[in-house]
Specification:
Number of helices: 14
Distance between the termini: 30 Å
CATH architecture of the largest domain: 3-Layer(aba) Sandwich
Oligomer: single chain
Helix content: 25-40%
Low-confidence stretches: none
CATH topology of the largest domain: Aminopeptidase
Largest sheet: 9 strands, mixed
Length: 495
């Protein structure tokens, strides 16, 4: 999906003949006096619809009207904003997404939209308008034959007399990172291979002046990357251990570490998954996709801090050389792992990623993203990512930016007692916890064994939030891009 052109114009300079004009209305305020004066006939239609109860201006409710006597536009789309006192930036993001979906449904390629509800918001909140428009209009059509000539939105004019150009531009950049993460997740696993992720990383690095290092299968043994080496044994598709270094802040700036699970297809290995829904296992690389989406925004915005990203990437297949239950692997930090279930593979490649990054770099904070456990879906559903940590202050930062962006995280405990659940009698740790008990926390307890002591770390499980079977608001069916907006807001707070 290519992003559209977005421009800003004051009300007095809006060109006539728009294909559509979008405005928002609060349920407890109604139409503004200025709108009534400028559009008396439209105002009568809106008031009649509200009086009859067909349009109550509830959040994300919409009304499409047509008029032949208006120079501005012959099509007006009214979006409900809900109650004015409850209005916030995420409601703008939702309203903009609602408008964008309507526009796509109407096959309109260009339109004008107001900074809806701006009287209740700050200029910087216009970022949410741009994000909502992009995320709401998202479509993945790469493998679908077009049935018409409509290619999507080309041009959007935002109408406002407020200085919001920078906020809109930044919103477009962040949304582009979300789109990249979604696209990577939507590609089938025969396209989005580990090599494809590595090529994407190198393309991003070229734009952002980053250094990339890509380790291949033959490098794993000499480097001691036994986790990814073991998981990759059953697949003929070349695995990759991807490292990206962005040094935008100099030696004295903060350094953020990111690790993303890049499991491009997960059959479960010898502990094979049921066939129903196995096609969804192409989504097991959404942690890596999130990190690549974040780094793509970093490449464009060039924040004044340092960011190291590691994406261990492979398939988990059950070929003749596949690792087996009962095997013992040795991770990068030298700890041995007893394999009880080959379908608990994501934590094995993350073990190498976490121990490598914390050994090679001094980090002020480390976040890993992974579609790691079905248990987190049982616990939190599809609205929050699960977060576990070894540093409460760092977790509080992520929780706060999650609330601000609505890319939300919900904390689960990680007390030392949970380490007992992953102890092995014949190795240092085992790759599963107690059956049907605290599966998400046990996975985090396992990962903590591979984070160098003294490193502030948060594990974010996006198995529920990373992709949806049923879309809502600005989140589509399929990959959502969870994690991108969260970390970009953290980066802004660190600059």
């Amino acid at each position: 999906m290519s992003l559209f052109n977005l421009s800003l114009t004051p009300h007095s300079e809006l060109p006539v003949g728009q294909k559509a004009y979008i405005l928002g209305i609060f349920s407890d305020v109604g139409i503004s006096t200025d709108f009534k004066d400028d559009h008396p006939n439209l105002s009568k239609q809106i008031n009649l619809a509200m009086k009859n109860g067909e349009f109550k201006a509830k959040l994300n409710q919409s009304l499409v009207l047509y008029t032949a006597d208006c120079k501005t536009s012959q099509r007006y789309i009214i979006i409900g904003l809900g109650e004015s006192e409850k209005y916030k930036s995420d409601f703008l993001r939702q309203a903009a997404a609602t408008a964008a979906k309507l526009i796509v449904g109407l096959k309109v390629s260009s339109f004008a939209i107001e900074f809806m509800g701006e009287s209740r918001l700050a200029p910087g909140d216009a970022q949410a308008l741009a994000e909502g428009l992009v995320m709401g209009s998202y479509r993945f059509l790469n493998y679908k034959k077009s049935e018409d000539d409509y290619t999507g939105i080309d041009d959007v004019t935002v109408v406002s007399d407020t200085a919001i150009a920078d906020a809109l531009a930044y919103g477009m950049q962040v949304a582009a990172g979300v789109v990249l993460a979604r696209d990577l997740g939507n590609h089938p696993s025969n396209i989005a291979t580990p090599s494809y992720l590595a090529d994407t990383a190198e393309a991003i690095a070229k734009i952002g002046g980053m250094k990339t290092t890509i380790y291949d299968r033959e490098d794993f043994e000499k480097l001691g990357l036994g986790g990814i080496q073991g998981v990759a044994q059953g697949s003929d598709v070349p695995p990759k251990f991807i490292i990206m270094e962005y040094m935008g802040g100099g030696k004295d700036a903060k350094t953020l570490g990111l690790v993303g699970k890049g499991l491009t297809f997960d059959s479960g290995g010898i502990s094979i998954k049921p066939s129903a829904g196995m096609d969804e296992m192409k989504f097991d690389m959404l942690g890596g996709a999130a990190v690549l989406g974040i780094m793509s925004v970093v490449a464009e915005t060039k924040p004044k801090l340092n960011i190291i990203a590691v994406i261990p990437s492979t398939e988990n297949m059950n070929g003749g050389e596949a690792y087996k239950p009962g095997d013992i692997l040795t991770a990068y930090n030298g700890k041995t792992i007893e394999i009880l279930n080959t379908d608990a593979e994501g934590r094995l490649i993350l073990a190498d990623g976490l121990s490598y990054i914390t050994d090679k770099y001094k980090l002020d904070g480390l976040v890993d993203f992974a579609t790691l456990t079905g248990a987190v879906v049982v616990a939190l559903g599809h609205r929050y990512s699960g977060i576990m940590t070894n540093d409460q202050d760092f977790a509080n930062e992520l929780i706060a930016v999650g609330e601000k962006t609505q890319d939300r995280v919900w904390q689960m405990p990680l007390d030392d007692e949970y380490a007992e659940d992953i102890k092995s009698t014949i190795a240092d740790v085992k790759n599963t916890g107690t059956a049907r008990e605290a599966g998400t926390i046990a996975a985090a307890a396992f990962l903590r064994e591979f984070v160098k002591e003294g490193t502030s770390w948060c594990h974010v499980d996006i198995a529920g939030s990373g992709w949806l079977k049923k879309g809502r608001s600005y989140l589509p069916e399929g990959p959502t891009g969870a994690g991108v907006r969260l970390i970009m807001e953290l980066i802004r707070s660190w600059e």
